[in-house]
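pinging the channel bc i need a second pair of eyes. not urgent but kinda urgent?? the chain im working w is below, pasted from the shared doc
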Amino acid sequence: MNISFDALPIQGDKLTGIGWCEVGQTTAMARLFPENKYSYNCFCGRNKNACVERISAFAGDNIKIRTADFPGTVYRMTTQLIPVPYSGFFGKKADITHFFNYIVPPGVHGKTVVTVHDMVCKAFPETVRARTRLMLSAGLKISMKRADIIVTDSEFSRSEIIGYYPEFGDKLRVVPCGVDLEKFHPCDQPERIPEVKSSLGIEGDYFLYVGTIEPRKNLERLINGYCILARHVDAPPKLVLAGAKGWLCDSIYARVQELGLEKNVVFTKYVPAEDMNPLMCGALAFVFPSLYEGFGMPPLEAMACGVPVLTTDAASLPEVTGDCAVICQPYSSKSIAKGLYRLYSDKKLRESLSVRGLERAKTMTWDKSAEKLYSVYKELL
């Protein structure tokens, strides 16, 4: 097969979960099934050299990079009004082209696959950036109509898509995300943990959250729950929130000040990739009380590091964590506080969750994800 991947989610200098999903699945597939031809398609515009350099870090020797000297933003805006064919930029050699970020442009040669990660634009539209809402409102339905197969990350997301777009049920296939066990594993350089903590201004034990600082992640209730814990425990662990600022995040920072928790809650600066494993492994527990996730990779990454996890019973999160996490109610700060206290006070529970989480993570790798996605491609041809 001649397989092309739209490289939009991996062109930026800081990847989101969608970008890491594409990297995980595509690089594993190219390594596992080298008999095919693979390429990343990218609109580069004036930043061609920087764009190619970033993508080359993922492509290696297995995936070619094909560029179009045209701004991707301009192309996507233009196709909202004029159906400019994608094949005019990337030709007609691909048997399959996979778009990982919801939208399929017009005029794609061969078969098309699109990943629709979740229905957050429908379920929690107030938490989505205005321009993203506009793009999905205008283009999602027609993209799913154009696609030959729609891939989604979980059974939960499959049921959500069918709920909003029942006409596309026959096209849906579930391909769970995975975890990179070379990147996320029990720390083999324990001396790095205090170094990373010091660089980020963290002292003592800590609960860790990793992800975007935004309302959908339910961080205000996490802070409220942590405040309840801090009032009943002497010298509670710090609460470390590591992530980039997202949509409507000001109230999250304000909540820390309102509760007088400035010395207890640490918002980190950008965490380099090489520091993420020591940061994760040094945590007393990983906390991820999100309201809505199509999959939720951070809890799986924490389990792969042997770190006990607290999450909620919302959306796909129980599907990801199974019986390997403390589960709380997402809309109850008291429930979150109880979960935090259980992890803080019960060493045997933490040890048990650590062992179970490590075993579960081994069954949810990017190799397994890529194998499942590859079977979808074979089904198409």
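so The mean pLDDT is 95. and DSSP finds 16 helices and 13 strands in the chain. — does that match what u expected or am i reading it wrong
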